Design the sequence.
């Protein structure tokens, strides 16, 4: 099966954003699995318009609501409704020679509530979590024969091939590395995406190969760990994603980077070699969706203390995620289909244990609207996280 980027390169229609990430603008999203449809302003998705330029836009608007058990009096933004991972993207491909294209991508995120100054529906002064920021920004060359080469801020191959297969429910990704490291956006630690990433992708038959070189990134002052300064040096990442049968795909990959940690005064730097390695599958027989992932993370998941004089990361952490859902077509006036599901996520080290279980329903409504409702049962050591019910209304632009 083609990867999302390969699908767009072939003029076909091809996520999940970190929960606090809000409004997105982009040029071709690598993200899976919530593939976005496009509206073509120039050209078309089949490449038959005769235009040398394909220009398209698309995205989703989301409204989220959360209710944490034991917080009935909580007057938080989550309980009043917030922009829950909304995205908007636009893409361009320039066909400069037969079988060759120049491609570009820009994607930004931010709260539409914040943009409209709707008070009470976005956070103020929370270390930029709700501020507008670049999610992806890259350009490259695509060839029918030689593959796709891109450079800029883009998704890590580990997430693209491996992590995305279980990134399919609302409060997911708590059992995998991307987004669980010292950087909540998963950008500076290169877990979810990375700035200064040189990436190559090639499809051979039913297999996609990804190879990336991580170049040094800017330092990151951690908002949740006593203002420690994290800086990524260099690294590499690679992944293989194979379509074994028409309804079964399997992927494996790794990511390794060198990093340093200092206090806010930049004294006493500690150096680390961080790695993620994992494997996942996605099976969609008939009306079923079944997915699973296993991963190992070294010097990656941070301790809660956030003290540079102590061990900053758990030395070795094992993660797992699983999802089972079944779609029931209804084709009614108000509901087209419904998918009940169960899911689980786990992270374990010698001193940390996180186990989350989920139950949920996905309703596909008319006019490209979807309603998702989910409850998380949290069983964690070292945290005060509560059980949470999360509702999400999604409109596909």
Sequence:
């Amino acid at each position: 099966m083609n990867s999302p980027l390969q699908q767009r390169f072939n003029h076909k229609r091809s996520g999940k954003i970190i929960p606090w990430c809000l409004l997105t603008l982009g040029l071709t999203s690598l993200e899976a699995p919530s593939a976005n449809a496009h509206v073509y302003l120039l050209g078309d998705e089949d490449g038959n318009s005769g235009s040398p330029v394909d220009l398209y836009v698309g995205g989703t608007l989301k409204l989220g609501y959360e209710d944490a058990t034991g917080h009935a009096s909580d007057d938080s933004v989550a309980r009043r409704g917030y922009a829950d991972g909304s995205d908007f993207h636009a893409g361009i491909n320039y066909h400069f020679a037969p079988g060759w294209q120049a491609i570009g991508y820009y994607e930004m995120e931010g709260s539409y509530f914040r943009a409209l100054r709707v008070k009470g529906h976005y956070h103020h002064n929370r270390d930029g979590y709700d501020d507008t920021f670049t999610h992806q920004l890259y350009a490259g060359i695509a060839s029918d024969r030689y593959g796709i080469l891109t450079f800029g801020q883009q998704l890590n191959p580990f997430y693209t091939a491996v992590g995305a297969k279980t990134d399919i429910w609302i409060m997911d990704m708590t059992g995998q590395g991307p987004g669980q490291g010292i950087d909540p956006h998963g950008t500076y630690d290169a877990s979810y995406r990375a700035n200064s990433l040189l990436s190559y992708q090639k499809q051979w038959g039913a297999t996609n190969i990804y190879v990336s070189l991580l170049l040094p990134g800017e330092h990151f002052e951690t908002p949740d760990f006593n203002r420690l300064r994290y800086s990524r040096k260099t690294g590499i990442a690679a992944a293989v994603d194979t379509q074994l049968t028409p309804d079964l795909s399997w992927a494996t990959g790794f990511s390794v980077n060198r990093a340093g940690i200092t206090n806010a005064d930049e004294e006493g730097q500690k150096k680390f070699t961080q790695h993620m390695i994992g494997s996942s599958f996605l099976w969609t027989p008939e009306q079923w969706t079944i997915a699973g992932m296993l991963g190992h993370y070294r010097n990656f998941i941070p301790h809660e203390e956030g003290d540079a004089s102590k061990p900053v990361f758990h030395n070795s952490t094992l993660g797992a995620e699983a999802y089972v859902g079944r779609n029931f077509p209804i084709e009614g006036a108000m509901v087209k289909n419904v998918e009940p599901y169960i899911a689980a996520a786990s992270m374990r080290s010698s001193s940390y244990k996180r186990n989350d279980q989920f139950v949920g329903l996905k309703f596909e409504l008319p006019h490209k609207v979807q309603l998702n409702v989910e409850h998380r049962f949290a069983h964690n050591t070292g945290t005060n996280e509560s059980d949470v019910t999360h509702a999400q209304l999604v409109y596909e632009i």
